[in-house]
Design brief:
- By secondary structure, the protein is of the alpha+beta class.
- It has one domain: Immunoglobulin-like, CATH 2.60.40.
- 20% of the residues lie in helices and 31% in strands.
- It contains two helices and ten strands; from the N terminus they run H-E-E-E-E-E-E-E-E-E-E-H.
- Strands 4-7-2-1-10 form a five-stranded mixed sheet. A five-stranded antiparallel sheet has the order 5-6-3-8-9, with no helix packed on it.
- Strand 1 and strand 2 form a beta hairpin.
- The longest helix is centred in the N-terminal third of the chain and has 33 residues.
- The C terminus is likely disordered.
């Protein structure tokens, strides 16, 4: 008993210190087991589909061609033309065939597959003309007509048929034009 009286306070103080230390570390160790992290977002992976657009302008008409510059992927392409309100655009497939057709979404689709190639003309579309009709009283030198193009790699279904998945489009492209793209200024040349 004398032993307990002599060392009892030391044992009690040691037990209290150990208890406080344990209490302080339990919270951080519980945080280790209960903390979680989630990540979100996405990253676009380019599989090599790349096209260049070329636009010549004469007499209020843009002559549009697209080249597949990818050395790996065949692709499908589509084009859309934006112009100011009140203007109308008439499209013509210069080849006289049915290579270009208008979709319900306002895009003009090139029907044949545009093959991957290192040769310059082997992967070039036929010309699509976009004739701009300017309303009366509108200054022909004071407007822009914007042509955008998109491509998507060729996907084959289970039967081996080529299909286009337009939910995955690539719109990064190189513009072969050297001018500013202003149709009104180009039409007078």
């Amino acid at each position: 008993m004398k032993y307990f009286e002599k060392y009892g306070k030391v044992i009690a103080m040691s037990a209290a210190a150990l208890g406080m230390t344990a209490a302080l570390t339990i919270e951080s160790s519980l945080a280790y087991f209960t903390t979680y992290v989630s990540a979100g977002g996405s990253e676009v992976v380019s599989l090599g589909a790349q096209t260049t657009i070329h636009e010549d302008v004469s007499l209020m008409t843009k002559h549009i061609t697209i080249r597949n510059t990818s050395q790996i992927n065949d692709c499908f392409v589509r084009v859309k033309v934006f112009c100011p309100d009140g203007f109308t655009v008439e499209f013509t497939d210069v080849s006289g065939g049915d290579n270009w057709y208008e979709g319900e979404d306002g895009y003009w689709y090139y029907r044949p597959i545009l093959p991957a190639s290192t040769e310059d003309n082997a992967s070039l579309t036929t010309v699509l003309d976009a004739k701009i009709n300017v309303p009366e009283g509108f200054d022909r030198d004071d407007f822009n007509v914007v042509v955008i193009q998109e491509c998507t790699p060729v996907v084959y279904d289970e039967d081996g048929n080529a299909t286009a998945d337009w939910s995955r489009v690539y719109s990064e492209y190189e513009d072969e034009q050297e001018d500013s793209g202003r149709l009104g200024e180009e039409a007078d040349r």
